[in-house]
Amino acid sequence: MRKRAAALLLSALLTLPAIGLCACGGGGYDYEITVWVGEGTKTLTEKQIGDFNETNEAGIKFKATVLEVSESVAAGDAIGNPSAADIACFAQDQEARLVRRNALSPLGTTAAAAVREANDADSVAALTLGGEGGTLWGFPLTSDNGYIMYYDKSVIAEEDVSSLEALIADCEAAGRNFAMNLTETGGGWYTAAFFYATGCRSEWPTDDGGSFLTTYEDDFNSENGLIAAQGMKKLLDSTAYLASDKASTFGAAIPSAVVVSGIWDYNTAKRELGENLGIAPLPSFTVDGESYTLKTYLGHKFMGIKPQTDAYRALYLQQLATYLTSEKCQLERFEAVGWGPSNLKAQENEAVKGSEALRVLAESNIIPQGQYPTDWWASVVRLSQNIQNSEADALNVPLGTYESSLAGLLSSNN
Amino acid sequence: MDKEQLSAAEYLRLRRWERLVYRISKFFTSIPGRTKSFFLKLKNALGSFFRALWANLVEIWTTFREGSWQTRVSFLVMGFGSLAHGQIVRGLAFLLLESAFIFYMIFCGAYWLGKFGTLGTVETIQVRDPETGIMVTQYGDNSFKILLYGLITLFFIVAFLYTWRLNVKQNHIIDGILASGKKLKSNKDDLHSLVDDSFHKSLLSLPVFGIVMFTVLPIIFMILVAFTNYDATNDGRFNLFRWVGLENFGRLFSFGESGITVAFGEILAWTLIWAFFATFTNYFLGMFVAMMINKKGIKIKKVWRTLLVLTIAVPQFISLLYISNLFAENGIVNATLMSWKWIKEPIKFWGDGMLAKVMVIVINIWVGIPYLMLITTGILMNIPQDLYESARIDGANVFQQYCKITLPYMLFVTGPYLLNSFISNINNFNVIYLLTGGRPWEPAWMVNGTPAGKTSILITWLFGMTSDSGDYKTASVIGILIFAVCAILSLIVFTVMPSNRREDDYS
Amino acid sequence: MTEDERIFEFDAEESIAGGEFDLEPAPLPPVEEPALIRAQTAYGEDKGSRRNSSVRVRSRIVNTIIHIVLAVLCTVWILPFVGILLESFRCESPGLAGYLIPKQWGFDNYVRLFTETQFPRWFLQTFLMGLVTAVVQTAFVLAVSYALSRHRFRGRRLLMNLMLIFGMFPGFLTLILLRTLMQDWGLADANAPFGLAIIYCASSGMGYYIAKGFFDTIPRSLDEAARVDGASRMQIFFKLILPLSKPIIIYTVLMAFMAPWGDFVMARFMANNNDAGYNVAAGLQWLISETKVDTNYTTFCAGGVVVALPITILFMCLQKYYVAGVTGGAVKG
Known about the structure:
The complex is a heterotrimer of chains A (about 425), B (about 500) and C (about 325).
Chain A: H1 2-24, E1 31-37, H2 42-55, E2 62-68, H3 71-78, E3 87-91, H4 95-100, H5 109-118, H6 121-127, E4 139-145, E5 147-152, H7 164-174, E6 177-179, H8 188-197, E7 202-203, E8 217-218, H9 223-236, E9 241-242, E10 256-262, H10 266-273, E11 277-280, E12 284-287, E13 290-293, E14 296-305, H11 311-324, H12 327-337, H13 344-347, H14 350-353, H15 356-363, E15 366-368, H16 374-389, H17 396-411
Helix pairs in contact in A: 8-9, 8-16, 16-17
Chain B: H1 8-13, H2 16-66, H3 69-74, H4 80-84, H5 88-116, E1 125-128, E2 135-138, H6 143-179, H7 187-193, H8 199-225, H9 247-253, H10 259-294, H11 301-313, H12 316-326, H13 332-339, H14 353-382, H15 385-393, H16 398-426, H17 429-435, H18 458-469, H19 472-496
Antiparallel strand pairs in B: 1-2
Chain C: H1 3-11, H2 34-41, H3 53-88, H4 108-115, H5 119-150, H6 156-166, H7 175-184, H8 192-202, H9 209-217, H10 220-228, H11 233-244, H12 246-262, H13 265-271, H14 280-287, H15 293-317, H16 319-332
């Protein structure tokens, strides 16, 4: 008996790899591809690729392995990995790095023309490296990578929503947290809100191949920057401040009353707060009697294609990506996971216009997101940490440290 | 304190503190001598190596000069001598190996080896496909594969040379046996010896092959990487990487303000501090718990032990993640303490560098005590009870008994274990990675996209380099340094500590 | 590194004392126990022994205190597991929660785990990997240990020292190379479990230390007697030594079987984002990756319970062998 069980197990072991290998042998398919898509869109993408197989003019059939790989992970895993996905979804701020590291192939003229025509100008500009008329490296997927403010209506009074100071006071009074990630990893993205609010600029132009030029412009260390630092200090010094950007902290043991996070957190926030959920654009802070409204980045997600050796395979992959980012597919994605479309026609859709989160984002004070050296984000986090630890009257010191770190960012290999 | 050697009688006459001072001073004064003897040993070893090499060359030459014609042919056609004398099994084995080697060298080896010096010269380029107008990639050389397969080829060459030497020796032996008029070993003898006198060869061949392929080869490969500029940019496919000598080491040790030097120093220091505390807190507290459970009059010993041991069975990636969440700034522990009015503001367990360091050490106690409890329980039971009995008659209290009997005995028996435990704590990835991941982050230590924080230890830093930012060249240097730290520690401990165990003690 | 490897770390080292470079077995040192001698001679003063009922009362108080301390300790040690168990039965929300006791109890998370995630596949893969590793690793470890313990051949010490030295290099360095190799052979991505099993098994001979220590304690006179009777080395190994080595065999099997369950680094890396190739550790970790944790946390906890249960039961049954192995490793290691 025992022997038979062992034999069964052994045979099971031996046949498993055979199954795995057989599965790779295509039946009636032209190309086998791997596709990495973001959270929650795996089944939808499988369906959409099936639709493409049915409808495309060339009659090409793709056999696709669709895997769920979050955009933040995808960039790291696509670089230097010979078996990375043929088509993957990335966040826009990774583009220069991906191009520099040869993880993307440029769009052909047909695909580029289609993309330029169908999508909003911001998203096309964001994906074009090397300035206007430069090479287009990706297919815009969303125009919603910005942040808004979620708050708990049972704690925050409606009239306080637009004032940072009032929000902080409400949170402190209720013993709840004000969650905005300024000082942890990833905090650079939110820190910028304060500096852009006072009119500061940080621009890092790249060449066509994704390498940063030496002509960067950054004036965070200025009068305006000092005002921004003073505004930040109000939040950082508060006992309510929590370095987190997770709507799930509404349900933590010490719950948050305000969370600044991306619109992807809408569902979580809704689940945690239900009827009490309020959303609003980011508030204003007041320094020396003058009021400044926090800005939000607006970035994009995009689909990129791995460098290919076979021109026709590349051509059809571009057609597939064009289809997957088309009006129809973007609308389907909006319905399934609420991603805000970059496609102009899809943006005009009534359902899209009716989305509360997208509407709030559109009402926000927006700054289009560019490309930044990877270590720049760390420099900004370091700046906010230093602001947190510095005396209120010595805020120019952290700003000076920040400025002196900038030149080194370009020489960094990253 | 007098530095001269004291006799045993003189030593025993000393007061206790004098003995201590004497022992410590002995330790330090012996360092030069030990260092010297280490280098002497090294010199001797090198000397004997070259002597052996020379002796081998001489033997090869005499084998050729004095050997039969079959032997001389064997220098080119391996196994010929054995075949000619009817030792089919051996002869065929040699011949097969030789043909396989030549076959491999012609069809693969020569190609890889030829490119090994440059790690590739043909660049990968992008070309516009004329028909579709789409840019496609034409791959050139792949530095990664060249380094890998070049290395494998070198391994094969070494293995071949060794086999060739065996083949020559074999013929030398055959000549000797024939000259003395005895009979050669038959094929059956050969096969039988594989399960008898040479049984170890059968036993070791597969495991050692596995170790060479999956441990030795990869490690040597990664050591070589430390001397190249292999990283995510120069990934070997799109941009070739090349040999850069000691550049990577130089960058790490370039004393100055640059991020990587500072980060390295800080992380190394914390790694050693962490390993020290993690080892000794666990050791003493684990022993303490074991002693409590073992104490006479303690009931349900088995239950206590089992409850503690449960923690070993549950995978750490589950339990440590849960604990990490418990202690979050907005987590249950903080909320509870606040509702009890013990604290006014939440404690940033993971947000403050010092506190986070203390926390990982404390939680590591939670992880480690069950192991140490198990280990020390077994050893404590081995301590002869009459020692305690006589100590009690002498009126020693529990603490004195511990200091005089238990602790010396434990340290004596588990000395080497402590070292191993220290080394494994230097490489204790799980606890740090799952609890803090290195937090709180120190943005100033960010190097080439690899984040590092106040609780990062070398191994988590290295992991970040290989898995997040692809900074393989720096990771290799860090890996070599981790190895160096471990090796130096072991050397020091084992040369300073008299070894208390030798394998043949038991037989 | 998994916690199981942690245990193996303890045993991997061999003394390089005295003769880093000599190839011959070390000479027998005199048996010395200075610590004990010191311990025995340390009690100069004679305080005499006075025992009375007050001593007994004191000892009872001490014992009570120790019982209380142990109870508190065990509570602290068990608490996280109780917490995970409670989380796994929480049905009202799928994310992290700020309280311990669920508001709504049920098996929803377990149902979800087995129907909506790939958990059954991960579990099966890990189980098979564990079986294969247990068989091969045990064979390798026993073979290497026996050869090193009983045979005296040229290069033996060198071999042991080399295994020690290579054991000191951090294994993560080789991840990228091993993945490239496995991808070339088609044993990564969805087929990662096969590649992983090979990697777990291939180098397992390096963990020979505990078993060798055990073989060393079996008197060599037994071997000699058998050899006089005409038994070959192989027969001695299979018929004489192995039957005497039950504890160490079980220990090795147990350790080898447990290793794949906790490995979340290598398994995730080899699978290259393909969740079909995960083991339970990588799979469960993936469930609570940053973008998924809000909807999967309680499912993760349920998975944790399902993984921990069989291992815990196995562990409870075989605890005494585990203790024997670990203690032996510490004393001799």
